[in-house]
Amino acid sequence: MCSLSPIIGQTEKSLKEFLAAYQYPEFRARQILDWIWNKRICSFELMSNLPPQLRTLLQKHFTWPAIKIVQVQGQPGTTRKFLSQLEDGQYVESVIIPAAINNQGKQAERTTLCVSSQIGCAFGCKFCASGLSGFIRNLSAGEIISQILSAESLIQHPIDNIVFMGMGEPLANFDNVVTALDIITAPWGLDIGGRHITVSTSGFVPHIKRLADYPKQIRLAISLHGATDAIRSRIMPVNKKWPLNELISALTYWHSKRKQMITFEYILIKGINDSLDDARQLARLAQKLNAKVNLIPYNTVESLDWERPALSHCKRFRDILRLQHVPVTLRYEKGHDIDAACGQLRLKHIDVSHSNHHNSPKN
Ligand code: SAH
Ligand code: SF4
């Protein structure tokens, strides 16, 4: 256990290990977690059922999150994006997405939070703002969790769904993401069911297999964006390391472990991956892997010259998938107005003029 780690990034197991090292009984772990997650207090001083020496010990070893929200975009009740500044001055962004759903005939509100898992991203997909300034560092489990707590305090009610679709490649920060998943799903923690959590990956094949062995029934989304190696490799360098046949074998393994469908995220970029033939290839792949497809017309990113196709074209693309009975959604308007594509808000706060990127469809 390293010193001064965020207390909200601790699991029951890690707290028990810490307590055992100082000869405190195991049950103190539950008491501490109860203060943090049920009573939602954020001071060791106030943990009145703990011996004073233990409170002092906790104080010496753990911190409370010191992140502050520095910018919020969007109005209450609509999709809102917020930028937080972390202790070391780095910025991280998260998006709150409210949705009205029909729950057994009753209208209900569900709120999804899109969290970041890293600052920047090393994967360098050519269309993506997160990769523009390169990779800076992993977020700790506590920093991932603190995005949820910040969102809940901003909207004043609990978050129902979590998607790891913000900045960074979650499977490249595997251990911290899994610790965060443990805390999010734990009955003593945020107690959000695995089915309400989606981890998105650009195709980190070995860790897809590792995540398939994770015991909770979380969902998996794959940022596919190309249904052939030629197209995928052109826009996503990850495909050169783990081409489609390896991705397919990891997803087959995932299926052998879990019942739910996986989701293919597919951004439509004009002239790059949006031909009707691309749609047919995508349909074949989705059928083969029993996947549903989310089509997302590209959100333009300042300093990149990629474009979204016209709505009529996106619909034609979608209809080819429908014709093949592939479950498909097309989200057209979302995001453009609040820079919802990952990494964009942060980019406005940092100077990327020295970054060495070549993100252009012409490359
Ligand atoms: N690194 C992971 C998690 C990030 S998810 C992954 O790539 O899956 C963020 C999603 O937004 C990914 O599907 C990504 O491809 C998509 N995205 C990135 N830039 C975008 C843009 N400009 N417009 C629309 N979607 C974008
Ligand atoms: Fe990284 Fe995902 Fe963006 Fe690719 S799409 S650069 S993997 S955050």
Itemize the secondary structure elements and their pairings.
Elements: E1 5-6, H1 12-21, H2 27-38, H3 52-61, E2 62-63, E3 68-73, E4 80-85, E5 91-103, E6 106-114, E7 118-120, E8 135-138, H4 141-155, E9 161-164, H5 174-185, E10 197-201, H6 205-212, E11 219-223, H7 229-235, H8 238-241, H9 244-257, E12 262-268, H10 276-289, E13 291-297, H11 311-323, E14 328-330, H12 344-347
Parallel strand pairs: 1-2, 6-9, 9-10, 10-11, 11-12, 12-13, 13-14
Antiparallel strand pairs: 3-4, 4-5, 5-6, 7-8
Helix pairs in contact: 1-2, 4-5, 6-9, 10-11
Bound molecules: S-adenosyl-L-homocysteine (SAH) and iron/sulfur cluster.
Keywords:
363 residues; alpha/beta; ten-stranded mixed β-sheet; two-stranded parallel ribbon; elongated; disordered C terminus; binds S-adenosyl-L-homocysteine; binds iron/sulfur cluster
